[in-house]
Amino acid sequence: MLITALLVAVPSVFSRMTGNTSFLLVLPLVAGVFVLIFTMYRVVHGLRVIQCARVLREYPLEFHPRVVKKGERWTRYGDVFEVRVTTRGQHGAPLMLAVPAAGRRRWPEGAEEGAWVAGDLPFGGVMVLPGSNAMLFLKPADWDKTARKRDEADAERRARAQRARLMDRTKRAVMMRPGA
Question: What is the secondary structure of 90-144 as a DSSP string?
């Protein structure tokens, strides 16, 4: 935003101070508009990173030995992956939607060997992959199917999920909608 403000303000101030009305003074204004448009397009990725930071403040990272990618969908702001995060000793891991926080369009390498997950899977969370700089935001693929597990959660788990803002439905999240 600072660069956009400079690209718009400097030519205007220079024109008023010197009285020069050259065509070349318009070029930084055009560049400023394009920088503003690109910045606004990238704001969605910043929102994802902010959401991941909230989750990481509330939940510790736990290693899950196996992550299986079941499918993927293309969206305007990045691919949405369907993954199953399995835990030893637990049966019936929920199918999760995973969105790369940085907006990349490829599945991170090495995810099949396991990942660090922060969060409560019936509510959502964050997945960080070892050996790479990949961070993915997680939400249950079928919000209604995991409703029973959320309802059975104690008050402390619900309050923690509320503080991390994981209580919202998946379909309302801009980053998860197909074609968004």
Answer: ---PPEEEEEETT---SPPTTGGG-EEEEEETTTEEEEE-TTS--EEEEEESSTT
Do strands 80-86 and 66-73 pair parallel, antiparallel, or not at all (unpaired)? Answer: antiparallel
SS3 content of the chain, % helix, strand, coil (to 5): 40, 25, 35
Task: Name the token pair of 88.
Answer: 């030893």
Q: Please, which residues have CB within 8 angstroms of residue 37's CB and are 6 or more apart in sequence?
A: none
Residue type at position 147: A
Residue 60 has pLDDT above 90, yes or no: yes
- Among 134, 151, 144, CA closest to 170: 144
pLDDT in tens, 74-128: 877 678 889 888 876 666 677 888 888 876 778 888 777 888 999 888 888 999 9
**Rounded Cα gap, residues 89 and 82, in angstroms:** 22
pTM of the model: 0.73
Percent of the chain with pLDDT over 70: 88
